[in-house]
Amino acid sequence: MENRDERPVGEQAHTPPERGLLHIWQSAGPSAQLSPERVLLPRPVLQAALGEHHGLLLTQGGLVYSFGNLLWRDAGVPLSAPVLEVSLLGRTVVQVAAGGFHCGALSEQGNIYMWGENTAGQCGLTESDTTTSITVSEPSLVTVVDSEVVPPAVVRIVDLAFGREHSLALSAQNELWAWGSGCQLGLVTNTFPVWKPQKVEHLAGRHVIQVACGAYHSVALVRSLPPQNHNTQNPSEKRERGQSPHYSVTERDDPFAFDAGHYCPLGVELSEVMTVETSPRGHGPKRRLQPGRSSAGSSQDTCKANIKQINLPVGTKLEPREHTDHLTQTDSSLKSHALSGWGASKSSAVSDETEVRSLLQKLSSHSLEMHHASGPGDTDSLSSYTSDDSCVSSTPSTDLLTSSNSGVAVPYSSSPVCLEEIRLCLEAEKQTLQGQKSSSLTNINQKGKAAANRRRSLPGTPTRGSPRQQRPCARRPSPAGRTQTAAPEEAGDGMPSLDTEVWSWGRGSEGQLGHGDQLPRLQPLCIESLTGEEVIKVAAGSHHSLALSAHCQVYSWGSNMCGQLGHVNSPVTIPQEAKLSDGLRVWDVSAGQSHSLLLADGDCVQPVLLYCGQQQEPGSTQSERSHQSQQSCQRSPNRAESYTVRPTLLPFCMEMGYISSVCSGGQSSAVLADQNVMGFISAIHELASTERQFYCWLSSVTKILLTPLRNRESLSPSLGKPCTHLFFFLCESFVRLSALIGRHSTSLSYFLHDAQGRDVTSLLLLTHTKLFLDIFKEYCSSVGNFQVMGGFQSLHKLSLECLGSQQAVLAQLCVSDQSVSGNVDLASLLYRPLQQLHQYSRVLLKLAACYDVLTTEYQSLHQGCSQFESLSLSLLRKKKEAETTFLFWKTHSGKTTEILRLPQRRVVCESSNRSLTLQNAGRFSSHWFILFNDALVHTQGAIPSQSLFSTHHIYPLTCLWVKPVTEVNSGLHGIKITCPEESSTLVASTPQEKNKWLRSLNQAVDQVLGGGCQGSSPGLTAMTRTASYTFTGEGRFKDAHYTGVWLAGRVHGRGTMKWSDGRTYRGNFKNGLEDGYGECIMPNKVLNKPDSYQGLWKDGKIHGFGKYMYASGEVYEGCFCNGQRHGYGMLSSGKMAKKSSSVFIGQWVHDRKNGYGVYDDITRGEKYMGLWLDEQRHGSAVVVTQYGVYYEGTFRDNKMSGLGLLVSDDDTVFHGEFSDDWTVNGKGVLSLANGDSLDGLFSGEWAAGLKVVGTYTKTAVSELDNKERNSLLRLGRYAVAAGQRWVCMFDECWSRLGCDAAGRGERTAAWENIAVTLTTARRHSPDLSRSQRKVLECLEFIPQHGEPVTIANYDNIRRYLIKASETPLHPLGWLVETLVTAYRMTYVGVGSNRRLLRQAVQEVQAYLTHLYSIVRFLFPGLPDDGGIIPDAPASPSKSRHNSSTSEQGSVVVVSCSSLLLPLLLPRLYPPLFTLYCLQEEQKEAQYWERILRLNKQPDQSLLSFLGVQEKFWPVWMSILGEKKQIVSSSKDACFVSAVETLQQISTTFTPSDKLLVIQKTFEELTQEIKPMLDGNFLWCMDDLLPLFLYVVLRARIRNLGAEVSLIEDLMDPNVQHGELGLMFTTLKACYIQIQQESTT
To answer: What is the spatial distance between Cα 226 and Cα 209, in angstroms, rounded to a whole number?
Structure first.
């Protein structure tokens, strides 16, 4: 639609554009003779801005045109031929603004360009000027810089507003910036003009939405603070909001409620203030003054003359009283003096209205004498556009006493009309003006104490009087029916906020600030009476202000000399509603010099124009300008000869098309209109108009009906408690709906200003569709629930009592199909909002018709139309259901049926006509079935006609399964009903009744399950569903509540079961029983703590692997079978255990320890590793203690018995018979550490002392070595064989693979079990990371396992095993993790005993054997341990010995150690290497002592000592790439790379990796030697050993003996005799050589 405007210029002249049609006319004149002038431009006009006598036009493409009296260029441009601002070409202007005599443009980048009059600095200091100038002839850039940030940043501007001598700009951060002159800037300064834009600090931190400028005042629309700040407002927030006299629009009985903390009119303070105050008892009738035109003079003589005319009323008694308000004295040379405070007694009340009027008349006459003839200006105020008053920079203003012409009510607090206040202010002003003449309203030099007083008087920190003398501000109550929780949301959701405030500041001589007085304000001040009125736009004329609310109401205040306020209410110093005709809803406003222009919805879709202002006689229009000039020169100016009392309709508006916006300025008005092309514009206007009408209707219902009823004290007794809650919820949902519609209507009003230029898909109906649907659903549900419970009958009676005269107004809000009797049907009234959904659908369909079917706009509009139409039909059905249900309860009212009546329950059908009965029911039994939308009710002994029944049962539809009974020769029309605890068959009277009930039941079930199906076929409802149910019958689920998945009436799937005794199960069910993974909590009443279990279940019992945490603190993690611990498991006793703290890991059989297990008695410091039988230690075992005592032998009945071997920490060995724990009794041999032995009969406890009868033998020195070796070889003789340990773990792994025993099972089934296990775990583990999920998905694919293993797929098998071992969810990964746990449990802590090293090594080798058998079962193509893969590649690459293969010729040897040790050993390395270190401890001490001693020598000395030939001695060394010569004193400079490589042996785990380090060390050593020798050099051991010995010494490897022993024990046998074996032998020889090196 944008392309329509791109046409040649010539064609544009004959074919006007479809949008941006501009009409301008002079406002002052009879409406019948007004003839708007059409402005024809080659492009559509997007915006117009009008000044006093000039204007600006913004057209499509960002072009700016000027017209009118361009004083800064000494040119006059006719409207018919506006001139293009050439200097702005290429700037892409998006907004223009016009002040009194200056202009501004805003570019797309947020830059400001200004030109025009600059006498007051209103055009700023442009970048092109080094000095300030009176006028700026061409648009020049004005930069707004925020100097508070570091570094200073340029501020992006989004909105502009100009007055006569000031300019305001709104930034993208919603902050306000100002420059120019006068108090209307709102700046904290006394130096004018302000040439550079400054931030209005008083609004800092507030979200400014819009700003408007009058001649000498400013108005801003600001978003309110969050609601809690209004309720609990701290002092600082109160200061921020400011304090001023406020007037509440709704409080007509008390028009003035002032705060004593008002501010000085001239921006300065006197030291004291006198207030005429009458006590509350002394208040007489409040009278209104009707003075003539009054205005303030501009010279010192005026003040003198005024003082002479002031006389206090006769009988006034002045009494001194304290007051702390201050008015700052203005002249520093004038001595500050304290004036005594005076207060009027009861007799001094202002009672003579004539005297006051006379006084004001005299003031006016004297002030008017000082005015000179002025140019064209306002007709309503002499304080506008005069040489004395309009230019603040030239003469100080005395508009303090300017009063509004419509009359001011006499206030009894600090009001400018009070006699004493007038006298004091004039006296102070006289002294001020005598002392000095200021060049600005607030440019008064203040020094010393006076300056401090002024700072304290700023609105941010107002001075306060005594608490006794302060009067509370009048606050408008919150809108009717609106609760705190239902307040409009902030605009962060993309919707306009209605929670707004209006702030004003500047000169208030005509009351245009709206604070209830004519005092100026230096800084922004909130107009409290407009807070909560949902103001969405503000406008400012020369001396009046307008505010437009979301309710389409216009509030106006200020000068009303020409009737521009649209009302004749008093006072005009506070906002009052304009008097609009019924049916007019204003949605745009503008204000000119002395008129207002309103854009409103009329009877049709096309908008209408309303005018407020001067209406001149036809004859006077010809000399309008001279008439105004003469009038301004009159001694006593009169009000306008003729003006409107209320806004009047401009009939020519209907010829302009669809007006989108209005603009006013000076005496001119302008409108922008669009043509209705393809019905697009009319559809948008129709949507906006109906939405505004709908919001006004909602607001009226809230105000007239809901709020009075809600606040009624008799509401709860009349409605009853249930209906009262429902009514409150209805009100809340109504308020939420109203708030949404208000924000939507406001958004549409904004949209209309540029309807064709905006994206139609940005309509809130399309962007916030879900929000609209949800709120309408909630509202419809709340109305239906209230209706079902019969609330409207009681509410109707209450409304008759409560509303009274408002009943007729309420009747007007009802729909047209109401009865003529005048009775209001509240149900129909509150159902009316549902009609708006169809309106949305209809308008969206109209909009869609304007676009091509393939466009995005059409798709979006069509989808929105379908959604709203569908919801409309759905809610209308719900409305009908609610009405039917209400009639049902009304027909079947009674105590027995009342228990079935619920707000959300709707009746579907019932069998009172005996259409349905129970199969095999008794002849005289009576059954009544009632189908609701949530349950099927079966009553027995029922008399439906009387609404009586004896018993009833409720079947929730969520747990009801319906199935038709097949009619096979039975003749019964049956329907089978299945419930969780029972099933029954219902018999219908006819096939038609059967189909009816079957369809109704299926649809109701489908509806309650969220399907929303309207035409379900019989019997097709979901068999599987998620629902909640409470069991009542006998059984294991008695009184349990279940929430989860069901299948055909049985618990099946994932769910939660909660028993009444506190038991809770969360997990999987199958066929009504717990099956699969689940978590259960079982209370323990004895310990007052629950047991908990997490793991697998089967057939309602704990079965499989899981973790059980007992209330006693014990934790069992392992396998279960039929609820008992069975298989592998680990039991840890907790801190609460009364017995000793311990851990057992091993095999269980039927909940008892049986088989091999490790028991760590932490309290006693003993660890038992052996066999168990029926919870007792029985069989071969090994016991170690924390004192280093080692025992191996047999146990019977939980104690040591029979032969055993005991080794103490000092190598004392006893081999003999035991009768109890650590008790020797019988034959034995005791071998001492020195080799001596004692053979005989022993008795007694080992730790307490032994009785011996035997022979002592002294061993010869030559036999010492053999004695020690033989003693060690005897260890492990009574221990459990390594291959027989942890059989339960391997059995569990085989079981997880689906095998009955080791190797007995189907390989395909095993792979399928693996895939199912991993898939299930991945689906039921939502907390898995992305990498873990990828690994599981990779392992779910079953690899090729049946083919013979080749070199190519051997690496694939190895990689698969690595991933599987790292995944605990995989059976192999679980086995590896469990083996590691058991290994660490065995050999860590007390188990770190060097006597256990051989057993630990053998256990690792047994792990490899068992694991390899499982791997070969999964991959049968693998050869036996040590077997070969014959089909090696034709050109094999160099063997990587850490890749699980070793080459011998053309074959690859595969062993379990090379394939599986890299998977297992890194996790077992810490405890295993610790045992090696303990075993080699003594040798390591000797080795390390020699390492430290030999490394003290320099390199050459050490090489010589080791016997290295000099030809191998390096001569040069490289340091950071620089070669340096090795000298005799050099240390650690030779063979550095070889030394560093060998040091890496401590960072590897497997023997193959350690051998690779040794091999790489030899290669590095060879590389360093080769440059010294010829290329044919070959190593011999005589040369190699000393050199490698040097490398080993310099490497300084700790625990090298342990490293050597580990490699020797666990290295692959296939490489022992090859090159790697030789290199390892060399390392071992070096270790032995260093260890045996002489210490002398």
So the answer is: 15
